[in-house]
From TrEMBL:
Species of the source: Halarchaeum salinum
Residue spans crossing the bilayer: 55-81, 87-109, 130-150, 170-192, 199-219, 225-246
Keywords carried by this UniProt record: Membrane, Transmembrane, Transmembrane helix
GO molecular function, one term: metal ion transmembrane transporter activity
Family matches, as Pfam families: GDT1
Family stated for the protein in its record: Belongs to the GDT1 family.
This protein's record includes keyword Metal-binding: no
Membrane topology category: Multi-pass membrane protein
Coiled-coil residue windows: none
Subcellular location: Membrane
Name of the molecule in the record: TMEM165/GDT1 family protein
Source organism, top-level taxon: Archaea
GO cellular component: membrane
Length: 255
């Protein structure tokens, strides 16, 4: 069948697993199709900076809401905005967060503080009233906002819309399968981020994360190729790991 919003090989992916039924097909395709996308990069980066459990909870909540909207509304989700507005908005938020995270990394590096606040990346970007209200549960809110914005108009969204069109009589199965696939992937991503936090200094993590966020934003604007974003992400990881190794080697050992 012709899919309502085909992109990036979505039709072939759905056809490959369609025989497994709506739940399994939705689970498998959402788990496999989105590796390397900006949502995954956001989860890994946020999990290195903020509380892992809250990042996971915020991310899967955002995914759940989007899954319901995608299946319920279908193509109208992407039709409410003029063409080209979505990547401009998404890219702008990622660039702003990246630049602010870079500033936070510098501040942390030059201070004696060991950890930045969970909402520091959004301070100065969100209105003062909103910023004040998200204190306390901020890690959850930051993750929720980041993933909700990152996934808007992304391949994950197009995939779920097309799965709903492929299985029009099983909307709940599509929602449950898509959400579970994304939840499993998000858990893996959060674990990777948490593991990195145990080894890497926070200032280096934030600097690397800033580079990734800005690169993703520029990719959304069409200024960078996807392969370039991957190279920048790899270079950012190498920078953070190299900095951590150098710091361990050069710092005096405690007696």
């Amino acid at each position: 069948m012709a899919l309502v919003l085909d992109a990036g090989g979505i039709s072939g992916l759905i056809q490959q697993y369609e025989a497994l039924g709506p739940f399994v097909a939705s689970l498998v395709t959402n788990f496999l199709a989105t590796f390397g996308d900006k949502g995954q990069l956001a989860v890994i980066t946020l999990a290195t900076i903020y509380d892992t459990k809250r990042v996971f909870a915020g991310a899967i909540t955002a995914f759940a809401i989007w899954n319901v909207i995608e299946v319920s509304v279908g193509t109208a989700v992407l039709g409410v905005l003029p063409a080209g507005v979505t990547p401009i908005f998404t890219g702008g938020l990622f660039v702003l967060v990246g630049l602010w995270t870079c500033f936070q990394a510098y501040s942390l590096y030059t201070s004696t503080e060991g950890r930045a606040g969970a909402t520091d990346a959004f301070e100065g970007i969100l209105p003062d009233g909103v910023y004040e209200r998200i204190q306390g549960s901020s890690a959850f809110v930051v993750a929720f906002v980041a993933i909700a914005v990152a996934e808007f108009g992304d391949k994950t969204q197009l995939l779920t819309i097309n799965l709903a069109a492929t299985f029009p009589n099983a909307p709940l199965a599509v929602i449950a399968g898509a959400w579970l696939g994304l939840a499993i992937r998000t858990g893996i991503d959060a674990f990777i981020g948490q593991a990195a936090e145990q080894f890497l200094p926070m200032a280096l993590i934030q600097a690397a994360g800033a580079a990734v966020f800005v690169a993703v934003g520029l990719f959304q604007w069409g200024l960078l190729a996807g392969s370039t974003v991957v190279v920048i992400a790899a270079a950012a990881v190498a920078f953070a790991v190299g900095g951590a190794i150098y710091r361990r080697v050069t710092e005096p050992q405690a007696n």
